[in-house]
Amino acid sequence: QVELVESGGGSVQAGGSLRLSCTASGYMFSDTCMGWFRQAPGKEREGVAAIWSAGRTYYANSVKGRFTISHAKNTLYLQINNLRPEDTAIYYCAAQAWRQGGYCLDSDNFSYWGQGTQVTVSS
Predict the structure, then answer these.
(1) How many CB atoms lie within 10 A of CB 84?
(2) Which of helix, strand or coil describes residue 102?
(3) pLDDT above 90: residue 67
């Protein structure tokens, strides 16, 4: 049974930084993508960053240069710098099933989801 648990969200001022973590249990990160998605009130869920098990990374244009995704052992990280009010959202960790395939920033291609962690950025 795969379980993803996020942590690290919070309330920060614009320009600040946060590091989100996602601890995975029961999951083998091989031939798959893991990613971070976010959903702001009234908006659709969007992929912000993903990483392929071999190391390739993917970023949404809106976060390039500010967000960094990484993975170590059984934990997925998202370093967020220079936070903006428009980054306010619930951030979800997600993982593909083994060899599920598909674009790594498309939420339809992910089978496992965490419960989410709130990030709030004030101006």
Answers:
(1) 14
(2) coil
(3) yes
Residue 24's pLDDT is 97
DSSP for residue 96: P
Tokens of 38: 């976010």
Task: Please state the separation of Cα 16 from the chain's center in Å.
Answer: 18
3-state secondary structure of 86: helix
Q: Smallest Cα–Cα separation from 77: which of 29, 16, 121, 18?
A: 18
Q: Is the pLDDT of residue 101 over 90?
A: no
Neighbouring residues of 97: CB distance < 8 A, sequence distance ≥ 6: 32, 111, 112
Q: What is the mean pLDDT of residues 18-42?
A: 96
| C-alpha gyration radius of the chain | 13
3 state SS of 115: coil
Q: Mean per-residue pLDDT for 69-86?
A: 96
- The secondary element (H helix, E strand) that includes residue 13 is strand 10-13
Token pair 């992910």 in the structure block, residue: 110
